[in-house]
Write a structure and sequence with these properties.
The structure holds two protein chains of two kinds. In chain A, about 35% of the residues lie in helices and about 20% in strands. By secondary structure, chain A is α/β, with parallel strands linked by helices. Chain A folds into two domains: about 140 residues, Thiolase/Chalcone synthase (Peroxisomal Thiolase, Chain A, domain 1); about 220 residues, Thiolase/Chalcone synthase (Peroxisomal Thiolase, Chain A, domain 1, 3-Layer(aba) Sandwich), CATH 3.40.47. In chain A, the strands form two sheets. In chain A, strands 3-2-4-7-1-8-12-11-9-10 form a ten-stranded mixed β-sheet, sandwiched between helices. A two-stranded antiparallel sheet of chain A has the order 5-6. In chain A, strand 11 and strand 12 form a beta hairpin. By secondary structure, chain B is mainly beta. Chain B has two domains: about 80 residues, OB fold (Dihydrolipoamide Acetyltransferase, E2P) (Beta Barrel); about 35 residues. In chain B, about 10% of the residues lie in helices and about 45% in strands. In chain B, the strands form two sheets. Chain B has a five-stranded mixed barrel with strand order 4-5-6-8-7. The longest helix of chain B has 6 residues. Chain B is globular. Chain B starts with a helix and ends with a strand. The chains are: A alpha/beta, B mainly beta. The interface between A and B is large, with 35 and 36 residues.
Chain lengths: ~400, ~130
């Protein structure tokens, strides 16, 4: 993959939250229009669309998303494909769009993500989300996603002495970052006590360790190196696109405390980009539950395996720390419309590398990374970005 | 909610912990696998009935339950390490949730899992209880 580069030339994002007045198609259309405008291109310049969406069939009784998105973008005629890898659907859509350009067949490709989760009752939403795990052997027996991450948290606490306070500090930090993100669902602080005293979900995890149910959409416009240099004066370059898989069920993993898919994808991504963990100035990681951010920073090599709790407690993942993690507020603070998240992460990377992240800007940010995980770790998609 | 056929065809596995074993590398699988990931085409997969004995490898107590499990909460869910090797995701029952600890010995029991669909058909399967 060397020699050819792919650029992000435009981004568009809706606010995340409980957006009762907006439909599935309203969301993706709004994000798309913003991205096209940001790129300064015409809709007719778009040659192909990939859109990540985890479960529109259960959340909105709507399938056939590729055609729907092209249709409502006013672009019916061009190829358009829905991509699905549970909570990593957005990251995978980005990877498909990247691959389409790298293959040399297209110059301008759209990668989007959209989820409309609040039109169904919470019980049905939980059932839909559990489809990211093993339906026959986990969900059947009453497992939920918070429960699967709680099983990992309990092992991490036992094997490495990680404390519930350290895990809770992830939520405190991410809310503090979300406060400065106009797109975030929760633009307010929570204290350590708030997190520790929030309602129980799946012990030891409580409500404020969990990302919320959210509506939202995100779109990025990708261009080939040649095209980007012609039409864009602030490109952000994608220098690696990696993906790896693991067993679908948590019970089949060799370890509950190491996300093997993310370790494999990170290794590949660092190789493609010619960087090491040390070079990463900031990262958007998949903190669907607070423990997941600790697993993520370990898998990415920001600290040793098992040291993620201490690393967080010591403040190394705050803005201004060694590796700023989840400057956007992460899934916890910004919200987690599942299929949208991978694209929203790429957009935060774009804001940081353009230097337009406002109060959450990482000083002199040059290299960023996004880490998007599906289910309990059966899919990991990692991208690396840099500015010129 | 899926139809009954999807439930019926897994009755041997869910009622009696029937998994598989690869006779080439001797690894045992629960849930059953038809392809051995170690041996691939050299693998020789046969059914294997697990003893139903093991210990708690990790656990949680679920307070926010999905549809079908609302009336059971709070309930303990664990990863049980079977004596033959595999981990199994299952509820831990017949004790207060605060009696559950990593490392405690458990055995399989046959129980109602939930009542599903409009018709309320009961689904049965395995759970685990502490052994003294």
């Amino acid at each position: 993959m060397t020699g050819k580069k792919v650029a992000i030339i435009g981004v568009g994002l809706t606010k995340f939250g409980e957006l009762w007045e907006k439909s599935y198609r309203d969301l993706i259309t709004e994000a798309g229009v913003k991205a096209i405008g940001d790129a300064g291109i015409d809709g007719k310049d778009v040659q192909e669309i990939f859109v990540g969406s985890m479960s529109p069939g259960l959340f909105a009784a709507q399938e056939h998303i590729g055609a729907l998105v092209a249709d409502y973008a006013g672009l019916a005629g061009i190829p358009a494909t829905r991509v699905e890898a549970a909570c990593a659907s957005g990251g995978l859509a980005l990877r498909q769009a990247y691959t389409s350009i790298i293959s040399g067949t297209k110059d301008i490709v759209v990668a989007g993500g959209v989820e409309k989760m609040t039109d169904v009752p919470t019980g049905l939403a939980m059932t839909a989300l559990m489809g990211a795990g093993d339906e026959e052997w986990e969900a059947f027996n009453g497992a939920t996603f918070p429960a699967l991450y709680a099983l990992m948290a309990r092992r991490h606490m036992l094997e490495y002495g990680t404390t519930i306070e350290q895990i809770s500090m992830v939520s405190v930090k991410n809310h503090a970052n979300a406060k400065h993100n106009e797109y975030a669902q929760f633009q307010f602080d929570v204290s350590l006590e708030d997190v520790l005293n929030s309602s129980r979900v799946a012990d030891p995890l409580r409500l404020l360790h969990c990302s919320p149910i959210s509506d939202g959409a995100a779109v990025v416009i990708l261009a080939s190196e040649k095209k980007a240099k012609e039409i864009c004066d602030n490109p952000v370059w994608i220098t690696a696109s990696a993906m790896a898989t693991d067993t679908l069920a948590l019970s089949d993993r060799k370890s509950l405390t190491q996300t093997n898919s993310a370790i494999l994808a990170a290794k590949d991504a660092y190789k493609q980009a010619g960087v090491t963990a040390k070079d990463i100035d900031f990262a958007e990681v998949h903190d669907c539950f607070a423990i997941a951010e600790i697993l993520a920073i370990e898998a990415l090599g920001f600290c040793k395996i098992g040291a993620g709790g201490k690393y967080t407690e010591d403040g190394h993942t705050k803005i201004g720390g060694e590796h700023a993690v989840n400057t956007s507020g992460g899934l916890k603070g910004k919200g987690h419309p599942v299929g949208t998240t991978g694209i929203a992460q790429a957009i935060e990377a774009t804001f940081q590398l353009r230097g337009t992240a406002g109060k959450r800007q990482v000083k002199d940010a040059e290299i960023g990374l996004t880490h998007n995980v599906g289910g309990s770790g059966a899919t990991a998609v990692i991208h690396v970005y840099r500015r010129d | 909610m899926k139809g009954l056929a999807s439930y019926w065809r897994l009755i041997p596995q869910r009622y009696n912990l029937i998994g598989t074993e690869c006779h080439h590398c001797k690894e045992k699988f629960f849930p059953p696998r038809k392809i051995c990931p170690n041996c691939r085409r050299l693998g020789e997969i046969k059914n294997y009935k697990f003893k139903g004995l093991g210990e708690i490898y990790s656990y949680t107590v679920i307070h926010a339950a999905p549809d079908g499990f609302e009336f059971q909460k709070p309930y303990a869910l664990g990863l049980i390490k079977l004596v033959e090797g595999p981990l199994v995701t299952a509820q831990i029952v017949d004790c207060k949730p605060d009696g559950v600890e990593i490392g405690k010995k458990v055995e399989m029991v046959f129980r109602k899992i939930f009542a599903g669909g409009k018709e309320g058909t009961i689904r049965y399967g395995y759970k685990f209880k502490l052994v003294d």
